[in-house]
Specification:
single chain; 327 residues; alpha/beta; Rossmann fold; 2 domains; 18 helices; 7 strands
């Protein structure tokens, strides 16, 4: 399974809930992906000595919580359309919250988090945070909807801009997409190359992902540096440069190619990226990615997006990659 830490989310949680004031943290989530999501917050949780968990008992959850030397309370599952387990978890919530008296409750979903956040907020005046799933791009989960409707949250964190715009009271925290997935989405790396590199990194965890790509000659070091170091900083700049300058910084076009494209633009009514693709210097997916990060012109972006397939979305890439690794 490929995972990456939610560094930005951990940073925001650390700044909002400092360990001097919030000494006891309770994590509530179901098993599987929701538990993995919560585990990505360990850099934040490591700052606190008193951490407890409420989740479903599986070999993975038991081993991981034991490894972190944190306490666990096992909730009843399944929770979907199961009224008996809902009542059991409500009773468990009253019992555990009375015993633990946490200063902060964080849930990454799904349904099991509702009774704990609701009871904690209403009856114990505990600070409550619900971190919406990264896979929720334009619609809140049922759990988030219920908790929001019942005013049981101090902070509702969403991971997509669309949700943040739709629900202004939420806190938006972007997701960190791994460099391999970005390069694949840009058409600069094949799925086979991505899978091979992930497997190599699993054998040599101390070596950076980009180092393998450069060593194999698949990607230029300047390209790796651009996507890892420069891109996150450039997208926040108010004053954008021409598209060609970003492609040059990523070592995807050189000065001569840029000069040729600009000269041709003066003769024909075609966009910069379109000419680069027609000449075979760049793939449409590469231009699509740059236009996604740097929306220079809405018409230009629209022209290329019709070629962008669903498998290039982060979630689909992740699922495809995991299926290849499991094969």
């Amino acid at each position: 399974m490929v995972s990456y830490k939610d560094d930005e989310l951990c940073r925001i949680l650390q700044e909002t809930y400092n360990k001097e004031k919030y000494k006891k943290i309770m994590m509530v989530c179901s098993s599987g992906g929701h538990f993995k999501y919560a585990q990505n917050l360990q850099p934040f949780l490591e700052e606190y000595e008193n951490v407890s968990w409420v989740t479903f008992r599986t070999a993975i959850t038991e081993a991981q919580i034991q490894k972190e030397k944190q306490r666990a309370y096992w909730a009843y599952s399944p929770t979907n359309r199961n009224l008996p387990n809902l009542f059991r978890n409500i009773l468990l919530a009253f019992k555990v919250l009375k015993q633990e008296k946490p200063d902060l409750i964080i849930s990454t979903g799904a349904g099991v988090g509702v009774p704990f956040l609701l009871i904690g907020n209403w009856f114990y005046k505990t600070k409550t945070v619900f971190a919406e799933s990264k896979t929720r791009f334009n619609k809140l989960s049922l759990s988030a909807h219920l908790l929001r409707f019942m005013s049981a949250l101090d902070k509702l964190i969403v991971r997509s801009e669309e949700l943040a715009i739709r629900y202004p009271e939420t806190d938006y925290v972007g997701t960190n997409i791994p460099i391999g997935q970005i390069l694949y989405k840009a058409g600069l790396l094949s799925m086979e190359q991505l899978v091979l590199t992930v497997k190599e990194q699993e054998k040599n965890p101390n070596k950076r992902f980009g180092e393998f790509l450069v060593q194999k000659g698949w990607i230029k070091p300047e390209t790796v540096n651009f996507f890892v170091e420069q891109l996150p900083k450039l997208v926040t700049h108010q004053h954008q440069q021409p598209l060609g300058q970003y492609l040059k910084a990523a070592a995807l076009l050189n000065d001569a190619q840029i000069k040729t494209i600009l000269a041709e633009q003066n003769k024909v009514a075609r966009r910069f990226g379109e000419i680069a693709v027609l000449k075979g210097w760049l793939k449409p997916e590469t231009i699509d990615l740059f236009l996604e990060y740097f929306p220079f012109n809405h018409n230009q972006k629209k022209h290329f997006n019709h070629n962008q397939k669903n498998h290039c979305q982060p979630l689909m890439i992740q699922k495809n990659l995991e299926s290849k690794l499991a094969a």
